[in-house]
Write a structure and sequence with these properties.
Elements (H helix, E strand, L loop, with lengths): L8 E5 L3 H11 L4 E5 L2 H8 L7 E5 L7 H10 L8 E5 L4 H10 L3 E4 L4 H21 L10 H8 L1
Parallel strand pairs: 1-2, 1-3, 3-4, 4-5
């Protein structure tokens, strides 16, 4: 994001109407949100030049193998830095552990809470801003050695 005054962009892969309503209620006032209802659109938009600042994805989304999609996003240079929060109705810790191994930043369990959605999204976007600041020189504001090393990897 070039200006701090711009709303941060969140891409949401969701096809459950109740969850869509909760995400809209919780996030639309503070963030620019976009919804997709399948994995192809999520990948296309997520990997575009105007990539989002954060991705929320329901692991039960149509056409999604969440582990494969997560690995694909985390192995691509354009998207590896984007926090990915997985939404699940599954209550098994083993599934969450596997998601973290694949690169997920966090989980939200259904039924969703507006307050928890707002808090977790805000936290991960704040972390993302700090990571971005760490790759800029304090004095000049231009990319520093850390950013160049990341670009070379």
């Amino acid at each position: 994001m070039s200006e701090m005054s711009q709303k941060q962009q969140i891409l949401i892969g969701e096809d459950v109407p109740e969850n869509i309503r909760i995400f809209k209620d919780a996030l639309s006032d503070a963030y620019k949100i976009s919804f997709v209802n399948n994995s192809d659109d999520l990948l296309r938009i997520g990997m575009s030049e105007a990539s989002p600042d954060l991705i929320l994805m329901n692991v039960g989304l149509s056409g999604v193998n969440a582990d494969k999609l997560c690995k694909k996003l985390k192995n691509d240079r354009k998207t590896q830095h984007i926090p990915l929060i997985l939404v699940t109705e599954i209550q098994a810790d083993a599934d969450e552990t596997e998601g973290f191994r694949c690169g997920a930043a966090d989980y939200l369990r259904c039924p969703l809470s507006r307050e928890l959605v707002r808090a977790r999204v805000g936290l991960h976007l704040e972390f993302q801003r700090y990571r971005d600041l760490l790759s800029l020189d304090d004095l000049t504001g231009i990319p520093n050695r850390r950013r160049f090393e990341q670009a070379l990897d």
